[in-house]
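Ticket #4471: complex job returned nothing on first submit. Input attached below:
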Amino acid sequence: MKEEIIIAGFGGQGVLSMGKILAYSGIMQDQEVSWMPSYGPEMRGGTANVTVILSDNRISSPILNTYDTAIILNQQSLDKFESTVKPGGVLLYDPNGITTPPSRKDINIYKIEGAEEAAKMGNPKTFNMIILGAFLKIKPIVKNENVEKGLEKSLPVRYHKLIPLNLEAIKKGQEVVQEIQTV
Amino acid sequence: MDVKDIIKEENLAYKKTKVLTDNEMHYCPGCTHGVVHKAIAEVIEEKDIQEKTIGISPVGCSVLAYNYIDIDWQEAAHGRAPALATAVSRLMPEKYVFTYQGDGDLASIGSAEILHACNRGENIMVIFINNGIYGMTGGQMAPTTLPGMPTSTSPYGRDVKLAGNPLKMTEIVAQLPGTTFVARHSAETAGAVRKLKKAIRKAFDNIDEKKGTSFIEVVSTCSSGWKLQPDASNKWMKENMFPFYELGVLKDE
Amino acid sequence: MVVLQAESEVAAANMLYGGAACGKKVMTSSSSPGVSLKMEAISYIAGAELPALVVNVVRGGPGLGTIQPAQSDYFQATKGGGHGDYHSIVLAPNSVQEMADFVELGFDLAFKYKNPSMILSDGMIGQMMEKVELKDFKPRLTEQEIIEKYGDWATTGKTADRERNVTTSLELQSELQEQFNIKLQKKYRELEANEVRFETAFVDDAEYLFVAYGSSSRICMKAVEIAREKGIKVGLLRPITLYPFPKKELNQLADQVKGMLSVEMSAGQMVEDVMLSVESKVPVEHFGRFGGIIPSPDEIVKALEEKIIKG
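Support reply: We reran it on our side without changes. The output follows.
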């Protein structure tokens, strides 16, 4: 198994922490992982993306040209990364703020109303976990129990009380992800 | 009577401390480095702390201080002695650590290191030799050169409009909460040396009590750099240096 | 353990000098502009023959440059960096695991050779996360054990049974200073003979060779995979020690391959050492992105095709 993922959006959307939780979840089931962030100097509001690789074997480059999966959370990131999905790969996006939806015909495209569902749950901070849930529904590369362990490992202890809410958000994402096209 | 008849134990009036080596000092006639070295060495012997004392020597004439005082030494880069002393004292808190620095070293290139070490209250002694000149390198203007004082780089006298004013480092560090004992001494007479030695003793005692930084300035001459005979240098120092760099204890907590 | 936030990199590195002279394990870390300031003390540490570890997580320069990753401090790290004829032992990790492991290796080499060691990393390894297995803590050596293992040179206080220890790099007599330099050079030859570390991949049948260290070597590994899928037989030599440099191994590989591409996040620094190593046997070219840009595996394959295969 090897899964090469780019997660891209605005700073403050939880892009980096979502990648971190995914990477820790991989460690919990003995996979090799890498987490390579790329972001501008501003802590909030700028673009942010992270390359996450989970693999059964040693990982070579943590920086990639093409990806098995692109998780896209704003228009700029869609413009930048749609073309980098490998043919037959997965593009998962949140339509909130997207004016020009993806157009490729040779990839699998899924939609997740992350922002909307997070608002319904009454906590916008669950946004990134809803997205993560949607991804894990499409590609169940880590088991839910290992995601829970990954959350425990990557969240500071003072936030551990929020783990049940995060798990609920992951479950929600798994339920509401929509298939647009498969190839 | 032959001279050999005089060299006898019972006739012994004075003996060099064993903490000073037998190496011949390279200092110029009239220089007080040797006297200050001796004062430090005597206190080390009196306190019986030769095995526990580490000196940090500077760059300047006293760069070779490690040839004269028989203890372990570290030779620092220009101005950095307080940084080295910080590490030594923190890694071996039971040891007696002191720096020995000149005015070019301490007040110019090392002004940041001395201020921060004093401000942190490092448990060390600082000996600051101030002769208002870069002695070793050829008598250039130092940060402590007096206004109007001629040096090789200020041949018409220090022009404070051009070169700024002399820094009174001792007054500056006395304001820092990390310092516990700050004093200005001299070493041109036997009486002055006795007072200086007392201050050095106090500084070492302060290390015992972990009281923070003890800072002792020694106002000195530089006959070679000042281009004066030793006796004329002492006279010039008393007439010009002492009014500007007033002797005395500035802080004793 | 004593940890202190110094007032400046100048002071931090001089604290390192003082601590090293006490025979303690001392380390300091910074990123490029800060490491420039540390060079003063590193030269003194090399001149006084003391063990110490410096970590440089390189960012793009010159000057204030950028905060993004680069490998443009290669010259500074491997050629001395401060004043005088000296070298630091330079280790180039290419994973977070090696970042951890090389701390121990760096200290071992520093104590063995009484010489500063440097871990030359970059902002990419500095920021990425990977799985790391931390080794068990080893008990710290006592003062007595250090004396037995490495000699009685530390300034821990002059006891009656020995001469005073003086840490210095000063020798005013030129003839003696020359002798000291010769002694240092002997040490460096010994390092070059015994401590070269490197890693190769896919070199057995290689017709071309990437030479890359640190982060670049990881990206080159992917470039090797991509190139081999295209039928290009390329291998990788990754120097682990940048000083001492794997000269002999590169020279031998020059008898086998048709050309080498030195891939660095710099405008071309290590490439000079690669060229010196292969003694003009085969073409050597440089490919780099710099100023904080990380090259992609595709770009590297393209550069190989354009600069070496077609060239």
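The CA atoms of residues 259 and 282 of chain C lie 5 Å apart. Closing as resolved unless it happens again.
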